[in-house]
Input
Amino acid sequence: MPPFAICSNKLCVYIFDMLENTESGFKIPPQPCPECMSRVILYCLSCHAPILEKPSQQDPRCAGCDAPLKQDPVR
Ligand SMILES: [Zn+2]
Ligand SMILES: [Zn+2]
Output
């Protein structure tokens, strides 16, 4: 399981930190996002690399292929 999961909605800043949440009892990321109900992603949507570094809140990008991790909301 990758250490981070991030909401795929560009307008939402939700990030799930596996290490932080283990202490409070959450070991798997919520699905969908508890803030906006969008999909929470664990992997880059372009190259499917796991999100290994804490993504920046402003412009989260894949460490492998530099693709943006967030998308425009579907709705
Ligand atoms: Zn969200
Ligand atoms: Zn990638």
